[in-house]
Design a protein that fits this description.
Number of strands: 37
Number of helices: 12
Oligomer: single chain
Largest sheet: 8 strands, mixed
Shape: elongated
Strand content: 25-35%
Radius of gyration: 45 Å
Strand order of the largest sheet: 16-15-17-18-24-23-22-20
Helix content: 10-25%
């Protein structure tokens, strides 16, 4: 209970001052005239002023408030390595016991986990938020339980009390990490791209000259090489295929190092072809020839070499040979010497007329087996005695002609297998009339009857469900057979036309092994920490996907079919880092954020970044490994840390529970007193 004297004048303050001046003048005049009652006159004037000033006593009933000590516990990813979780628990128990012994003091505990993205340890953000929720006048101390590695020092707030760091980690901690310094987003196929890697040791690391580095592309078996520690390594890489190439680098976990979370890195490089080289050989002029040429020439990245046989060699009309073409058909150069320079060879209504000897056609067969691609766009010649099938190429073509050619209208259909194959999947949705009966596109009027081997894939059918488009893999290469030469009707818009351009584009890209058109594939589309896991397969079902987390734990996921041949699921990853996916047949690797997150760039405990902030509040840094600490009360401005102890500053905060105001005396009492004093002065002066 405390009391305070208050004045509540009955008249304006300026008038009160004027009356006070008059009282002083009157008393001064009485003294000058040597009146014996001058002092009684002065007391009477004071009593009169007191009556006008209306004095009262304000009394407050105060309740003392406890001091608050904030404890921010870092539970981010770097605090879950080694013995740090146990050290966190030890420090929390130590602080709680010490605060309990402090009189009138409370402990507020705030936990800091992993935020979204790769922000690292946002320790100062957590301190700012905790301070905003508490009255500043009650904060007696702030204690951080952390490894000292933070990434938001610039967000440090004004601190109203001493700041201390209880630092996790051991003096002999060490760690080794793999750093990829320059990784391009894309590279041209067939050209080397240099990556710069570095193996760094941190802390009390043992002397090591070199370590094995394993390199894997798209989950293939890794290649292992010895690399030096502490030096930049220039690593030349040639991408094996177009599209996204996932390169995984990893070093083994050494005995005694803190964590292996920074021992691996994933680099995703998009492989782009400098130029797609296509050889188009047209056996004779026909309406669909221009369609092929327009398709291939419309793509600026395609280098097209096109030859059309205008006149068969057996035709004898007396025209000199040097007038039949601008240049001689360079058969030897194209089909022997430079055949491997082409990504795709297309035979458009080609028939055997002796222009390409059997040895050249056999060389094309070898070219396919070694990774090349051949597409046959056939007309009636494919079912004749001059069919290209009756050559060494027949060993690899996915359809044997029966010599029957049907000349009647039919609507091309997508087979059940074709609905799951990426070349024809969803093609009917691109038709001019997708909501009508059937696929919604125009008819074709010629179909060559073929017998398809068991291993080939028929993705489109024609008249009476006979094969129309068949695909096959031969060795390392691919072949395709279009059993009709009427695809150009779609391009001309006959009966509404059809998606001819998209069909031929997909077909060409599948044959050139573009990853987005692989029949069997497993990949991930990340969005933040959410994965869309996609499995494409020609099978009617697919197995579960096992996801291996960055810390080695596993999660098994079941995929649901969303469209024919496409299975998906959404999964929220618990943390950023490197994940491996395997369904028993296909594998994939995905890095959410960097493979080694910001949390694991520096893993050795160090309070250097916090030292200036701690020194400004006269706090201290105490390693938890040194044992428990004491907490003492210190006056504000005094050193708040010493050997084995840290200090907090009591704030003596209070809350006013009740206020009462009591007049010192009633106004009439002051007036009575003034009257008595004035009478006393008159009587004293009257006896003189």
């Amino acid at each position: 209970m405390t009391g305070t004297l208050l004045l509540d004048p009955l008249i304006p303050l300026l008038a009160l001052y004027a009356i006070a001046v008059l009282v002083v003048v009157a008393v001064t005049l009485a003294i000058w005239r040597r009146l014996p009652g001058w002092w009684l006159r002065g007391l009477a004037g004071l009593a009169l002023l007191a009556a006008i000033a209306n004095p009262s006593i304000q009394q407050e009933d105060r309740e003392p408030l406890s001091d608050i000590v904030l404890m921010v516990v870092d539970e981010s990813a770097s605090q879950r390595i080694g013995t740090r979780p146990e050290q966190n628990a030890q420090a929390i128990a130590n602080i709680a016991a010490e605060i309990e012994r402090q009189p009138n003091t409370e402990l507020r505990e705030v936990s800091l986990g992993d935020g979204e993205g790769d922000l690292g340890t946002t320790l100062m953000t957590a301190v700012s938020q905790a301070l905003a929720e508490e009255p500043q006048a009650r904060i007696a101390g702030i204690i951080l339980v952390s490894d000292g590695r933070l990434h938001d020092l610039e967000r440090a707030p004004a601190l109203p009390a001493p700041l201390h760091l209880l630092m996790t980690g051991e003096p002999d901690d060490w760690d080794r990490r793999l750093v990829v310094q320059n990784a391009p987003a894309f590279a041209i196929l067939g050209e080397e791209v240099n990556l710069t890697l570095r193996i760094e040791d941190q802390g009390a690391a043992p002397e090591t000259a070199s370590v094995p580095l394993s390199i894997s592309i798209d989950g293939d078996p890794p290649l292992t090489v010895q690399v030096p520690v502490g030096q930049d390594i220039q690593l030349p890489i040639t991408l094996p295929h177009g599209g996204m190439n996932v390169l995984q680098f990893e070093i083994p976990t050494a005995e005694g190092e803190l964590t292996n979370r920074n021992n691996a890195s994933v680099v995703q490089i998009n492989g782009v072809r400098d130029r797609l080289r296509v050889l188009l050989v047209s056996g004779e002029p026909h309406p669909g020839e221009r369609t092929w040429r327009n398709l291939l020439k419309s793509d600026s990245s395609v280098d097209l070499v096109h030859f059309t046989i205008l006149r068969p060699p057996e035709k004898q009309d007396g025209v000199p040979v040097n007038e039949l073409s601008l240049i001689a058909f360079p058969t030897r150069e194209l089909f022997l010497e430079k055949i491997n320079d082409f990504d795709l060879i297309i035979f458009d209504r080609y028939r055997r007329r002796g222009i390409l000897p059997s040895a050249y056609l056999d060389n094309i067969r070898s070219y396919v087996e070694q990774g090349g691609a051949v597409l046959i766009s056939s007309g009636p010649e494919y079912g004749s005695a001059e069919s290209i099938y009756r050559s060494p190429l027949g060993q690899i073509l996915p359809g044997a002609p029966t010599a029957r050619v049907f000349e009647e209208g039919f609507v091309p259909q997508i087979t059940d297998l074709g609905a799951r194959h990426p070349v024809t999947e969803g093609l009917d949705a691109l038709s001019p009339n997708p909501d009508g009966d059937g696929p919604g596109w125009g008819r074709w009027f010629r179909l060559v009857d073929v017998l398809v081997p068991q291993e080939a894939m028929t993705v489109m059918s024609g008249l009476d469900e006979r094969p129309l488009l068949t695909l096959n893999r031969i060795g390392e290469g691919r072949v395709a057979l279009m059993a009709s030469d009427h695809s150009w009707l779609w391009d001309r818009g006959y009966e509404g036309g059809g998606p001819q351009l998209e069909l031929l584009r997909r077909l060409a890209h599948w044959m050139m092994k573009e990853p987005e058109l692989e029949e069997e594939a497993l990949w991930v589309e990340p969005a933040g920490q959410t994965m869309r896991i996609i499995r494409r397969t020609l099978d009617l079902d697919t197995g579960d996907v096992v996801v291996t987390h960055p810390d080695g734990t596993e999660t098994t996921l079941r995929l649901e079919e969303v469209s024919p041949g496409r299975f998906e699921t959404l999964w929220n990853a618990p943390e950023i880092g490197l994940y491996r996916l395997d369904d028993g047949e296909e594998t994939a690797v995905i890095a959410l954020g960097p493979a080694a997150p910001r949390e694991f760039e520096q893993t050795i405990a160090d309070g250097t970044l916090l030292t200036p902030l701690i020194d400004s509040t006269r706090g201290g840094i105490m390693p938890i490994s040194a044992g428990d600490i004491d907490i003492r009360s210190v006056r504000e401005g005094r050193p708040a840390a010493g050997r084995g102890w840290i200090g907090i500053t009591p704030r003596d905060a209070f809350r006013t529970a009740e206020i009462s105001i009591t007049p010192l005396l009633p106004a009439w009492a002051f007036l009575l007193l003034a009257s008595l004093l004035m009478v006393g002065a008159w009587l004293r002066e009257g006896r003189r």
